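Contributing new records

If you add data, match the layout below exactly. Sequence lines come first and carry their own label; structure lines follow with theirs. Keep one chain per record. Anything else will be rejected by the validation script.
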Amino acid sequence: MNKIVSSHAPFDLLRQSLITEAEGIIQLSKNLDLHHIRAIEILEKTKGRLILTGMGKSGHIANKIAATFASTGTPAYFVHPGEAIHGDLGMIAQDDTVIALSYSGNTQELLGIIEYTRRFRIPLLAITGNDNSVLATSADVVLLLPKVAEACPMGLAPTTSTTMMLALGDALAICLLERKGFSSQQFRNYHPGGALGKKLLKVADIMHRGEKMPLVPIDSHMDHAVLEMTSKGFGCVGIILSNGCLAGIITDGDLRRHMNKDLLSQPVKLIMSTKPRTIAPDALVASALAEMNINNRPITTLFVVEAQKPIGIIHVHDCLQAGIV
């Protein structure tokens, strides 16, 4: 068997492959039509789960698309078409919607799932490059891929075609996410671990509450404030009004700046800073860390306030321990 030897430099081959696949996605974006709108409408109305299926490389893409839907608020999973005809068809319920991926549209292993969805009137969406195929002519909605060149120079390995499938699946998931009003908090619920979970961590998740907050009334004297500051270990104490609102803050830096023999007998309102930096409980921890370092005037602690009342306190060490740097 003769081996194909290319005279092109590696960078030229890499670049051409990327350009070819990118052009496929661009062409796909130009081919959007009412079928894609209809697909979104069906997905929005689905009461059950979204079932992704496909064989070979299309199956790998379908598996990834299912994961994207599941992580963005749409219950979804992958059903292998070969396993489906040996009992796994029972995983597909009448309230579900099926998205089947096959560039040729005539994949033999998909026939069982196609027939099953038709028999039980389960919505079937097809992502295919052949509108005359068994899959296309059987589906409720056909999302047709444009006829473009594969990145493979022999035109054999699924490359551009599978990239278009993946991009279209992501686009459907993102569109559905937006239509459902899926929030960053919901996203974090599905991604509690790893870098994504850390990026979406909120101040309320790690702040210290209740008796752990260093607080004294505004009519207190500095001896009381110093004891509170020392016992709580945050290097500061919040000064609160009679209505519970935060009036100011005294830090260990304020103590050094006002140090004299009469300091402990002075009222706290003469020592406190009246414009302390604060943060909201629903702010991201990353935002709290940024606030602590704003304008090259770093501080180590922020009071967490709601309606001007302190409900928690967060230290820079809390941010670092949470993995936010």
